[in-house]
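Honest question from a wet-lab person: if I give you the sequences of every part of a complex, can you actually get the arrangement of the whole thing, not just the pieces? Trying it with mine:
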Amino acid sequence: MLRRPAILCDPTLCTACRACQVACKQWNNLSAEETEWFQGESYTNPARVSAETWLLVDMREEIMAWGELVWMFTQRRCHHCIDPACLKNCPAEPRAINRDAHGIVTIDPGLCIACGTCVDVCPFEVPTVSERYQVARKCTMCVDRQSKGDLPACVKTCPTGAISFGEREHLIEIGRGRAGEFEKGHLYGVTEGGGSAILHVLPYGVEFSGFPEKPGGRVHRGVPTRSRKSSMAGIDGAGPLLIGLAAAGLTRFAERKRRVRESGTDPDPK
Ligand code: SF4
Ligand code: SF4
Ligand code: SF4
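Yes, you can. This is the full assembly:
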């Protein structure tokens, strides 16, 4: 494996074919979801990353100050943060979220108590608690493929070279060069939120990308409601609430064990 594997997403080369989205589903055995041609605001489809959609091509159109209509295709997926809020706040004991020696952040379904804390605190709204499996799920950066010397499925599939894989330092160099070709170009993920393994070339700057300028603050998206207060209070003030969340998670864990006993099946994803 690479020492610090990273993925560089360059929307200026992306045609929004969504082959990466499909490859991610195929490799990770993720179910299809109901989709709509037009979501009301954009053609992003399905509307958001979920427990069954770990990679989503976000499509947005913007009329720029100079009157030109531009399409922006950015990838929504786990950023594999260097200092992951999800990991720091996971109340499971032992923690269900791990950042390995290569910087890949994964959730252990055997340890996850489905409390939803990572859902609340992730600045990119990535992890989602699966109703079906009762665990939080997200992109694994295809660590299983990487460990065998293969490329992540999305990278391997992209027909235009809009997603590159390599050592983070090297991709930062390439990404900065690419972003530098645009007046307001910016390479996102080098420093934002402490940096991440997923890097995004933003030709028109952060403003038109939909990414938070300063990842850390978080707008709650509504699930699960039992942990809404933690995101509103902010991470610093969330100690007592996290204890409550842990208790809620343990209740759900007990419920899950009960259902396993009753059904005689293992609900954990393989
Ligand atoms: S993007 Fe969210 S889920 Fe992924 S490592 Fe960062 S905080 Fe965790
Ligand atoms: S790295 Fe693997 S799991 Fe992550 S988005 Fe790409 S295909 Fe999906
Ligand atoms: S496969 Fe490549 S070109 Fe197609 S949507 Fe994904 S990043 Fe864009």
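Two things worth pointing out. The first strand starts at residue 5 and ends at 9. The chain has eight helices and ten strands.
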